[in-house]
Amino acid sequence: MEQGCRKMGTSTRKFPLHSSKRLRRRFLNRAFAVVYFFAIVALLYHHAESLLYSPTYGAFFISTSLLLSDIILGFMWLNSQAFRMNPIIENIFPENIEKVCDRKNFPALDIFICTADPYKEPPMTVANTALSVMAYDYPAEKLSAYVSDDGGSEFTLFALMEAAKFGNYWLPFCRENKVMNRCPEAYFRSNSCSNSEIKTMYESMKRRVESVVEKGKIIDEYKTSEEEAEAFGKWNQGFTRQDHPTVIQVVSQAGNDTDIRGHSIPNLVYVSREKCRTSEHHYKGGALNALLRVSAVMTNAPIILTLDCDMISNDPSTPHQMLCHFLDSSPKFGFVQFPQRFNGLNKADIYASEFRRMFYINPVGMNGLSGPDYFGTGTFFRRRIFYGAPSSFIEPEIVELNPDNFVERSIKNQSILELAHHVAGCNYENQTNWGSKIGFRYGSLVEDYYTGYRLHCEGWKSVYCNPERASFLCEMPISLNDSLNQTKRWALGLLEVSLSKHSPLVFGVRFLGPLKAHCYAYYAFGPLLSFPVAVYACVPQIALLNDFFVFPKVWDPWFFLYIFLFLGAYVQDCLEFVLARGTILRWWSDQRMWLIRSLSSDLFGSLEYITHHLGIATRGFEVTSKVVDNEQNKRYYEGKFEFGVPSSIFVPFSTGAVLNLAALIMGFLKILRGENLDCLIFQMLIASFGVVNCWPIYEAMVLRSDNGRMPIKITFISVSFAWVVYAAVSFILKLQKI
Ligand SMILES: O=c1ccn([C@@H]2O[C@H](COP(=O)(O)OP(=O)(O)O[C@H]3O[C@H](CO)[C@@H](O)[C@H](O)[C@H]3O)[C@@H](O)[C@H]2O)c(=O)[nH]1
Ligand SMILES: [Mn+2]
């Protein structure tokens, strides 16, 4: 791809494209890690000692559960240190790109947009995303957008056809007015547009698309040409989402279709791969592999951008930014990862949807260890990366899929289209390397994490690029249930990696070295946190209710060890959060959601992993809804948690909430009765921390009356459950003395 810009060696020295800065805080991090490590060892020693000398079964039970919990927490701490050893910030100088490489020599770019459900991912959202990237400041004849529709919906195709027509006006409008946010919906929402003509045009297109989805039918009047009518004809009687032939429709063709100023517009291709009930489709990974092949046959650009359908471009110069890395890099360099930044978070970001640690803090840490993991969206790949390690190329089955193959014919050429249909077939991958050695990798519901991991194991490098202005903006779930179900899917997918033969601790260590393997282990084993959090959320509390005192007394040196461990971790976490431009308010939500997720997503994800492996249940990729309900939206902006639906995923942490409150009240009663505070204090501290964190849950259970409150059924189940857990643990605690 650098061919066009070959003689860059000297010019990039004069006009640098990127630079990197190692953060000085690495020294502090390392020193603190050593101190903290010894503190953990001391704590484990303390537990082991209590275990050996436990006077009763109860004490034995408590010491065992605390020891196991702290081993897991210690292991997670160890993993998290890998990110702290060598953080690096990468800077880019996109203003120099055109000085070292002429526009006409820019490499071609294929953009993949995935959608899977026209009701959860409205076709208008997909159309907006497509328009926002088609309007990139990049030579249009080198740009192709491929939309993969796993929902197999004619409405999505209709929306794209409408988008292409509107694009004829929108693209020149953006160019001439130097618009930065080229997603029409976002642009019209935030600008009082002076040119109301284009706004009217947009509104009328939006009305048409939405009415089609609403009516569930495309009226003939909307099919403006013979070709369009023919395309929709493919949705005949036997066509269902799970069972249908491949549909590939070239919606606009670069070099052939022009905008109102006579400039070319980029290729826009709709692809719905063939689906049949008898063969596995591998969810998004499968969709991306189908796109890899279809695009190889049609345009075969050396660079690929993968996007989720709600990830709009917010900066037309993003391709220039990624070129800063691609034009000046080693042959092992494989991808540039841009962060997900979110549109419309509320002030406290109550569901911690921005995942500041995962998307902003940890990737900087991985930059120093040959690059960040793959986030699934906002990633520019070198096409070659999907065909084996840097030094051992794996030949695909047909020459047309070779990343170096040059496509001479037009994308509407009959034989090209025929081959494209063939490679999108549902049995095409049988007996091939797709999904195992070639392309996006199968086997985990978090195909992004897993694919990035395997690519790094092969020796590819990546870079994290987070420019001042957000390159992309995306949506996040605004109901607690949606948010928890999303992370539950992640938890299940991560366990599929951690407990497989490719586990970071076994396979990863061999190929990545210990530090990077621990970074991957940090995510893969994350769901294990459900155990220690569950223990700390109920064991000390129930012990307190039973007059059982398990922790060191105040003034005991071990007490201070606990305080040091707790504050050390929390203060460091908070500092890093704030240094990554977070607010204290959002950090508080972040740590709260960390607790809540451990007791819901991680727990249920683990249970699903087990049931799936026992063959009791099947697993699936439940798509997160991007539809916004106005009433819900209002509550979200007021910062209220949205429970609303009677979902069992709320039960474990609501149970914990009840137990903590009961323990705290009991503790106060004991103090009032004049019992000794010395032994109580530690358990009281834990319970108070629980109660402060659970405040929104109590509110939702008792104080609220809106539709987002906790369903009575769930409150009832949680209280009963709390009673059962209390009774069971109390029974063990009271077992006769040895
Ligand atoms: O069978 C499927 C299921 C999903 N998708 C697409 O996958 C994307 C992500 O789905 P979403 O429901 O939005 O999941 P999230 O949890 O929000 O996505 C995160 O996590 C996923 C892995 O679980 C990654 O694939 C995503 O890139 C990452 O943003 C969407 O564009 C979907 O259309 C498909 O194409 N086919
Ligand atoms: Mn998403």
TrEMBL record:
Gene3D superfamilies from the UniProt entry: Spore Coat Polysaccharide Biosynthesis Protein SpsA, Chain A
Keyword Lipid metabolism: no
GO biological process: cell wall organization; cellulose biosynthetic process
Residues passing through the membrane, by range: 27-45, 57-78, 520-539, 559-582, 649-672, 679-698, 710-733
Amino-acid positions noted as binding UDP-alpha-D-glucose in the UniProt annotation, renumbered to this chain: 120-121, 150
Residue positions of the active site: 150, 448
Record InterPro entries: Cellulose_synth (IPR005150), Nucleotide-diphossugar_trans (IPR029044)
Entry GO terms, CC: endomembrane system; membrane
Matches recorded under SUPFAM superfamilies: Nucleotide-diphospho-sugar transferases
Keywords: Cell wall biogenesis/degradation, Glycosyltransferase, Membrane, Transferase, Transmembrane, Transmembrane helix
Main location: membrane
Localisation: Endomembrane system
Membrane topology of this protein: Multi-pass membrane protein
Pfam families reported in the protein's UniProt record: Cellulose_synt
Any one GO molecular-function label of the UniProt entry: cellulose synthase (UDP-forming) activity
Annotated binding of Mn(2+), by residue: 284, 308
PANTHER family: X-BOX TRANSCRIPTION FACTOR-RELATED
Record's protein name: Cellulose synthase G3
